[in-house]
Design a protein that fits this description.
Oligomer: single chain
Radius of gyration: 18 Å
CATH topology: Rossmann fold
Number of domains: 1
Strand content: 25-35%
Number of strands: 10
Number of helices: 11
Order of helices and strands: EEEHEEHEHHHHHEHEHEEHH
Largest sheet: 6 strands, mixed
Structural class: alpha/beta
CATH class: Alpha Beta
CATH superfamily: P-loop containing nucleotide triphosphate hydrolases
Strand order of the largest sheet: 6-7-8-3-9-10
Length: about 250
Amino acid sequence: MKAEAIVFDVKKLNLWYGENHALKDIELKIMKNEITAIIGPSGCGKSTFVKTLNRMTDNVSIARTEGEVFYHGKNIFDEDLRVEELRTKVGMVFQKPNPFPKSIFENVVYGPRIHGIKDKKILMEIAERSLKHAALWDEVKDRLGDNAYGLSGGQQQRLCIARCLAVEPEVILMDEPTSSLDPIATSKIEDLIEDLKKDYTIVIVTHSMQQAARISDKTAFFLMGDLIEMDHTDVIFTNPRDQKTEDYITGRFG
């Protein structure tokens, strides 16, 4: 395992919400240009874990963490780390599409504008590149000035992915990105995620084991705040080491 291929190296990560011990001694590695799926029943710590990777949990006043999360060898909890830089490199796409009440174009270039890019030509290039990467350009190129709320749910989610891509992240975290979409839109997003893997490292929380089986390289199974096991996805789904994993995958609980 080459060191440069390790994007995140999580060591003894614990997180509490007040008295609730939500993550317990989590240890795992996330590898470059792979899709890592996080599965497990509701309330098992999946979303909390993913939000820890770009310190979104900092926004929760009662959250407290212990342990280390190394991003390219640098602990993200170090005092000299700038959280804004981390979140630029480690982007996030949420469960429900959350476009801004602005035009399609302004949604995509929101991040680059914040970073000081004002040149209209450069912003247009960023918008076109990001929308193409998000497999949305052909559908919206003639209506970039229209309000983003006029798009379908699936298109809005791809717009949110384009907005994430516009600031040139390295990692994309996705928290159940298709749970509010219909099967056709879900299929498009899954195709997109597989395509994005060439250029990005992707971590996806999913309530759908079928989705994890279809698109991920590795799967981590969480239960009650514990990481039960993590392995290549085909191993997890065909020959898991832990009985709890097998029970969950075969539908005995969850």
